């Protein structure tokens, strides 16, 4: 008991953050599970799935885990082809928990615990800049309703956030340690790709940070060797999966996710925008074209069909590359400022279906925007609150890009690692289908950067106020 008390006194803030994050998420899960059990349609509960399985991706992970456990194959239920849409990390974890006799609630409890550790890691990472920055960023994460909600569902985000934070924390500490710690970081980054494929670009951020903000105790040769060790280790961990896909599907691609994104969303959404139709109508046009060129006569989201899907998507986009580029940039805005609250409320049956606000604005349909705010008052309030909050976070992060120049090397390394992860994820994940969930996996790094940027902005405003006040006194 004495040792426990000493630990708490030494790590009081970490303990409070961990406990708050875990209790909030477990409490939210118990509440939502109770409501889902007694309310038809709540959180998309149906005869085929029930919360915390919220359908779509959730169902894919659970179904693949059961096939893996029962048949020893990594495949979707009822499919003869091996799985090539999902990465294996999360389904493997689910299968392991099912094997031990646990169920979906066990997964949620584990995710709540990992969210607690994530809060601690955010606090520690932010403290490399200043303890106050870590404190603010960690509490934003603990209380963030989007993070809380998705931690209570069967999705990869919570695991991905924890392991990404762990990689960043170890990477920043490794600048004070032996070279082999960079190998450990590379190893973890490679494993991270098996959870979500967009992590494949993270080693580039880490290596770039090492070269731009070099440790003064390392020679250039030592720095380059460490960067190569990190990148090479990450590649060696990922390579077996790439080889597996080359053997099975004759492609080095990690997954069909990126191609599906272009075929099912990016290109059809642009087609619908330029032709004035709906997304469903555009998808049917693309599907007919796919069947014309695909010898497998299938539109399943697999690597076997991916080359033909990619050809259909880019065949259309090549007709107007600059027009699409502008459309892509404008429609990427939700990655930074979308509220995410309306989607959660919709899943809870608190609000109904709503029009796409971004599309209404892009097409200049001001009347449609006015109708939205008048007929969907509850959704409009959630939109306004969420957009104001995330606009502030984005403003703070952009301010941090400029303000970071006054930090010492260790602080710059921390800040620009966070910003680098956010922006490289935006380049990979943003586009016409961008939404709050795409942002969620890197939101802790936005919180850290924004906390610093807004704190610096507040300091600058106070400084300008004092200067203005003193100038006024001197003039009188």
Give the helix tally: 23
Number of strands: 0
Oligomer: single chain
**Beginning-to-end CA distance, first to last residue:** 65 Å
Strand percentage lies at: under 5%
- Rounded mean pLDDT score: 89
Task: Please trace the helix and strand order, writing H or E for each element.
Answer: HHHHHHHHHHHHHHHHHHHHHHH
What radius of gyration results from the CA coordinates?
A: 24 Å
Instruction: List low-confidence stretches.
Output: none
Q: Into how many domains do the coordinates divide?
A: 3
Briefly note the structural class of the backbone.
mainly alpha
The shape, in one word, is: globular
Indicate the percent of residues in helices: over 70%
**Major beta sheet summary:** none
């Amino acid at each position: 008991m004495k040792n426990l008390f000493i630990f708490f006194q030494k790590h009081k803030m970490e303990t409070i953050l961990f406990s708050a994050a875990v209790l909030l998420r477990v409490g939210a899960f118990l509440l939502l599970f109770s409501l889902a059990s007694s309310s038809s349609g709540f959180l998309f509960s149906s005869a085929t799935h029930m919360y915390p399985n919220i359908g779509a991706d959730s169902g894919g992970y659970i179904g693949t885990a059961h096939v893996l456990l029962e048949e020893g194959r990594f495949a979707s239920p009822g499919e003869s082809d091996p799985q090539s849409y999902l990465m294996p990390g999360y389904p493997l974890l689910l299968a392991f928990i099912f094997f031990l006799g646990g169920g979906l609630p066990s997964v949620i409890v584990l995710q709540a615990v990992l969210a607690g550790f994530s809060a601690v890691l955010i606090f520690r990472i932010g403290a490399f800049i200043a303890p106050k920055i870590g404190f603010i960023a960690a509490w934003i994460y603990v209380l963030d309703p989007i993070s809380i909600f998705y931690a209570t569902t069967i999705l990869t985000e919570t695991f991905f956030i924890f392991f990404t934070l762990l990689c960043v924390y170890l990477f920043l500490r490794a600048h004070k340690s032996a070279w082999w710690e960079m190998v450990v970081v590379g190893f973890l980054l490679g494993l991270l790709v098996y959870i979500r494929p967009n992590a494949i670009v993270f080693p580039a951020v880490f290596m770039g940070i090492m070269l731009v903000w070099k440790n003064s105790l390392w020679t250039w040769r030592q720095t380059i060797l460490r960067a190569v060790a990190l990148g090479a280790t990450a590649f060696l961990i990922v390579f077996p999966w790439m080889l597996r896909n080359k053997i099975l599907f004759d492609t080095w691609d990690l997954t069909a996710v990126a191609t599906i994104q272009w075929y099912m969303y990016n290109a059809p959404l642009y087609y619908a925008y330029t032709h004035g139709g709906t997304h469903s109508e555009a998808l049917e046009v693309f599907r007919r074209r796919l069947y014309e060129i695909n010898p497998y006569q299938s539109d399943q989201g697999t690597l076997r069909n991916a080359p033909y899907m990619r050809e259909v998507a880019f065949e259309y986009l090549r007709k107007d590359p600059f027009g699409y580029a502008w459309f892509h940039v404008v429609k990427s805005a939700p990655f930074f400022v979308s509220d995410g609250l309306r989607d959660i409320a919709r899943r809870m049956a608190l609000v109904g279906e709503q029009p796409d606000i971004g599309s209404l604005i892009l097409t200049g349909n001001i009347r449609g925007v006015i109708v939205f705010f008048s007929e969907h008052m509850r959704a409009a309030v959630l939109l306004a609150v969420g957009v104001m909050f995330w606009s502030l976070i984005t403003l703070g992060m952009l301010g941090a890009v400029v303000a970071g120049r006054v930090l010492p090397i260790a602080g710059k390394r921390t800040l620009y690692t966070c910003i680098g992860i956010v922006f490289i994820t935006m380049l990979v994940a943003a586009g016409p289908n961008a939404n709050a969930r795409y942002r969620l996996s890197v939101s802790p790094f936005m919180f850290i950067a924004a906390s610093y940027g807004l704190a610096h902005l507040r300091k600058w405003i106070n400084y300008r106020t004092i200067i203005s006040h003193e100038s006024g006194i001197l003039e009188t």
